[in-house]
What does this fold into?
Amino acid sequence: MTIYEGTICPPEKGYIAVVVSKFNRTITQRLLDGALATLKKHKVHEDDIRVCWVPGAFEIPLIAERFASDIDCTAVICLGAVIKGETSHDEHINRAVSLEIAKIATDNNKPVVFGVLTCNTVEQAEERSGASEQTKDKAVDPTAGNKGAEAAEVALEMIDLLSELPEPKDPFGDMLSGFMGSMNEPDEDFDVYDYWDDDDDDFVERLPPPRKKSQPKKGKK
It folds into this structure.
């Protein structure tokens, strides 16, 4: 049995992008501070961190996709705060953003971490963007902690985990290789010889003469 488990450590190469929403900036700034402090705590150099502010949570996926498609980007941390209002607007935002972030991660095969708060009240958002560290186990530590710091740890752990896993197979490449291999195999029923005619540089296709159909043997009378 083989067991894979990542560790929280700095990536060997590339940079980490942080996409953060300016809407509810009092909250999102604290999320960003938590994420940056965690990255630096785990020896990620400042030059390997890129922060991009977007107007709101709905704009996060577009910029996250731009970073995720960059081969030098090892992970994208998405930070935002959507707080419930008098309408169901927040529900539509949360659903759209969460689905898109998950799709970006799978499409690009790299960590795109969901660090967007989806809270009913401002108080809940403040609790989840605080300075206290979280053990990730509510039975041990009921404090909400800082979701930005947690997202940074998730990104680092996932980068390391993906580096330990075997490379994914390319089903299209395997299918193409099989097809090309079958093209090189001789056909017992039909052979085609292609060559260049040196005299007139025309491509000549020479086909074997048609095979005679075997006649059924006549039975003795």
In short: The first strand starts at residue 15 and ends at 21. The chain has a mean pLDDT of 84.
